[in-house]
Amino acid sequence: MVAILNQDKGYVSGQGLINPTLYTLASNATTYAAAFNGDVPSNTGATGNECPSGLGANYCSSASEGAYATNAGYDQVTGLGSVNLSALATAWPVNSGASAALIGTTTTLSAATTTPAVSTNDTITITVASESGTTVPSGTVNLSIDGGGTTYSSSGSTTSVTLTANGTATYTANFAAAGVHTIVAQYAGDTTHAASSGSVSINIAAVSSGKGSFKLGATNVTVTQGSTGTSTITVTPSTSPAYTGTVDLSVDSSNDTALANLCFGFTTPTASGGSVTVAGTAAATTTLTFDTNASDCVSAAVAEGGKHTMHRLGPVKTSQSNTPNRAPLAVAFAGLLLAGFLGRSSRKLRNLAAVIGLLAIGLGLSACGGGSSSTTVSDPPKGTYTFTVTGTDSTTATITATTTFTFVID
Predict the structure, then answer these.
(1) Helix pair angle (350-369, 327-345), 10° resolution
(2) Cα first-last separation, the chain
(3) Taking every pair of C-alpha atoms in the chain, what is the biggest distance, in angstroms?
(4) pLDDT of amino acid 315
(5) Which residue from 173, 195, 247, 318 has the highest number of Cβ atoms inside 10 Å of its Cβ?
(6) 179 with 279: CB under 8 angstroms?
(7) Residue 278 and residue 212: Cα distance in Å, rounded?
(8) What are phi and psi of 387, to 5 degrees?
């Protein structure tokens, strides 16, 4: 609720302690009645915060050891009451230093590589851009690593960076632990620009043991035509000898032609499929998402929900209807007539007539074979298919495994 108040009233860097503002607004009877709900009037017999019998005045606010009584307005049982946020936002004071309307921003992060090695520096570029106009956002960007404030930067001292004059900043990440790490950047905004956030995921490859093996498992998928479904892929490493490493995953179906308009994506995508990191003895999992809505999959790689890259199983299949183009036929017929007249007029024009005649014949042929077309993209057909997932160690190709699962579109 405070975040909404900050955004609505232009407090781009927060407000600090809001209690004084709350009690100031509550002291106005009209504002209190509109902005706060659930107040219990006095003399209803309602009580709360009862002091257990026998503790005495040292532990209670009165020697009677009784309960606090309810009163109209503030009391120790109900406080100010619950909040009607819409009314509270209307009454809340506007930040006097804020502009009437802040310009929206977009925060994006890109990594020099999304698959660096363990304990290797990786440069993260943060870009904050205005959603409209030509102004450049300024100020600071706060960074959160893996849901917390811990920094893995080699500089090791801060979780915030300052934007340069072109609205960008860089951060050096260095992860000692293998696996997927997420960096979230939260732009605080300035007097002109609104706050925004973005994220990037880094997959730190585990050091490959070069020995051992792993098993693959996958859950079956049933999905309604035109919607999405998921399969959980599990990689279980051997323990004797122990296997560790990054497993590259690829997908194939029993009917790539029928499923050409299907697209898929792993939680951690790669250029050819996905990957999962096995850093210890426990099994590792990843999610394989399928999208059977063909319109979502018309390009080679599309963003699925903004979360990860989707790959298409094959070339987009389309249905096409042709309508003959009549215009070239008319031009061709007129050309033949002109060629006939020129050929009869004089011997000098017969060569020109021959050229015009050839051109007219060419136009006629193109008219018969050409036409305008309309293209539609159809969803993958209903049916039951078998999918094969292949996993291969990223450095030792002989360490590999496969699994199959059933994919049903109904």
Answers:
(1) 160
(2) 42
(3) 131
(4) 56
(5) 247
(6) yes
(7) 12
(8) -110, 145
Q: Domain coordinates of the chain in residue numbers?
A: 2-42+59-91, 105-204, 214-317+381-409, 319-377
Residue 257: other Cβ atoms inside 10 A: 10
Residue holding tokens 């050929």?
A: 343
DSSP 13: T
Percent helix, percent strand, percent coil in the chain, to nearest 5: 20, 40, 45
Cβ distance 246 to 292 under 8 Å? Answer: no
Equal CATH topology for 105-204 and 214-317+381-409:
yes
Q: For residue range 169-188, list pLDDT tens digits in order.
A: 999 998 888 888 888 898 98
The predicted structure's pLDDT at residue 357: 52
Nearest alpha-carbon partner for 213 in 404, 399, 391: 399
Q: Residue 326: is its pLDDT beyond 90?
A: no
Amino acid at 180: V
CA distance 293 to 302: 12
- d(CA 310, CA 298) in angstroms, rounded, equals 11
Winning range, highest mean pLDDT, from 28-32, 123-127, 325-329: 123-127
Chain Cα centroid distance, residue 185 = 14
- Asked if pLDDT for residue 352 goes beyond 70, the answer is no
Whose tokens are 């094959």? That residue is 314
Fold type of domain 214-317+381-409: Immunoglobulin-like (2.60.40)
Nearest-angstrom CA–CA distance, 109 and 106? 10
Averaged pLDDT for residues 268-280:
85
Q: 105-204 — its CATH code?
A: 2.60.40.10
What global pTM score does this model have? 0.50
pLDDT tops 90 at residue 42: no
The CA distance from 233 to 315, in Å, is 25
pLDDT at 54: 59
Q: Region 153-161: what's the mean pLDDT?
A: 55
Q: Mind giving me the DSSP string for 41-86?
A: PTTS--EESPPPTTS-TTTSSSTT--PEEP-SS-BTTTBT-EE-HH
CA distance 160 to 198: 14
**Strand pairing of 400-409 and 221-223?**
parallel
